[in-house]
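Human: I hope this is not a bother. Would you mind checking the protein record under this note? Thank you for your patience.
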Amino acid sequence: MKNFFKTNLYYIIRLIGTQVGISIFAMMLQFATISASGSLFLLASVASVIFYFVLIYSTCWEMGYKNSERILAGRLVQSPFHGAYVQLAAYIPVILLVVLLWIGFAFSEMLWGGNLFLIVKWVLYLYYSVYYGIINTVLKSMSAADFQTVMYPLMYTVSLIPGIAVAGGAYYLGRKGIALFSKPKQNVD
């Protein structure tokens, strides 16, 4: 485990930085579109999610492409889920926040639980706002307030899956040298 973090720290930090950057980008889009209409707000959120997936894809594809040489040379053991594991490691702060959100929800009848739920919900909005427009639109379409409350932690939990899947797929494609976008230029030194 220690070796995993040591060898992949660059990509983990890069993915966390991507997440913070895209959260700021998503918040700016949401602030610009929230007063216009609900559909424009949703469209801005979907666009930021797609852009986020492109950034995850490019990082994990590059990692897979570079690791393919090490795998062929026998310096690295082949792992089909390596990209997904790296993205999961980059999601550790979000996973901890989602766990705290679930705890706050479970104890929301108590004052500290309700406060924890509200505070963590806002911290998640700031740190992981890329999905907020989609989550907000889905929750507004639901009628029961109690059902909306349980959907917050559930939707944030489910929102982790696509990023992990994109990272895993991108790593696999990079390892095989299959590019959806243009391949990086080879050094001809």
